[in-house]
From TrEMBL:
This is Uridylate kinase. Allosterically activated by GTP. Inhibited by UTP. Catalyzes the reversible phosphorylation of UMP to UDP. Residues 20-25 are annotated as: Involved in allosteric activation by GTP. One of its GO terms (molecular function) is ATP binding. Its EC number is 2.7.4.22. It is an enzyme of class 2 (transferase). ATP binds at K12, L13, S14, G15, G55, R59, N163, Y169, D172. Homohexamer. GO terms for cellular component: cytoplasm. Pathway: Pyrimidine metabolism; CTP biosynthesis via de novo pathway; UDP from UMP (UMPK route): step 1/1. Belongs to the UMP kinase family.
Length: 241
């Protein structure tokens, strides 16, 4: 294909993806690799928004299981996503890509507040926009944030970039050698079969708004670009059966 299939995308990155093999913290080499792939796409005049998780620093669910108040634990997780977002912004701007971080919780010294119309304007000006601090509410995951922001900015697709799996399987491929990879699924299939693609709230939101989702591995360089061009990589989950 000579032109990208999707013109406005939401790239969803898990916090764990930023940690690399260490499994904790921010790996500068991994951040740089992601930034280089985002730059490659942004230079094609594709409008790129990014949602980053915070699991490499803190997971609210784990804190809750340890006896912490769930809302407090989740707010801590939101702060972790801001740290990841700032690290990614810095890496992108070192590569010459103009970037804005917008947070769902006001922290004006480090980022803009999330304002839908302003986010869309940044995208129209070909700036990469990173949505941080989740939805700003406890009990909601960054998967749900990606689905919500994609609906709000009218994105063409959500690109779910993974660092340890190359699509959606009927079982964990690291445990079950006979696990089968799906090329295509519907959100109804995902919900019925309880597949670990994204949480049920995010899946329902994508299904209701007919937002396609591509699940793929970003560890192979160029895969984000391939996904944007509509090449068959990973698994595509569609809003309708």
């Amino acid at each position: 294909m000579d032109t990208p299939k999707y013109k406005r995308v939401v790239l969803k990155l898990s916090g764990e993806a930023l940690a690399g093999k260490e499994g904790f913290g921010i790996n500068p080499a991994v951040i740089k690799s992601i930034a280089e792939q985002v730059k490659e796409v942004a230079e094609l005049d594709v409008e790129v928004a990014v949602v980053v998780g915070g699991g490499n620093i803190w997971r609210g669910k784990v804190g809750s299981e340890m006896g912490m108040d769930r809302a407090t634990a989740d707010y801590m997780g939101m702060l972790a996503t801001v740290m990841n977002s700032l690290a990614l912004q810095d890496s992108l701007e070192h590569l010459g890509i103009e970037t804005r971080v917008q947070t769902s919780i006001d922290m004006l010294q480090v980022a803009e507040p999330y304002i839908r119309r302003r986010a869309i304007r940044h995208l129209e000006k070909k700036r990469v926009v990173i949505f941080a601090a989740g939805t700003g509410n406890p009990y909601f995951s960054t998967d749900t944030t990606a689905a919500l922001r994609a609906a709000e900015i009218e994105a063409d697709v959500i690109l779910m970039a993974k660092n340890n799996v190359d699509g959606v399987y009927n079982a964990d491929p690291k445990i079950d050698k006979d696990a089968v990879k799906y090329d295509q699924l519907s959100y109804l299939d995902v919900l019925k079969e309880g597949l670990a693609v994204m949480d049920s709230t995010a899946s329902s939101l994508c299904m209701d708004n007919d937002i396609p989702l591509i699940v793929f591995s970003f560890t192979e360089k160029g895969n984000i670009k391939r996904a944007v061009f509509g090449h068959q990589i990973g698994t595509i989950v569609r809003g309708k059966e």
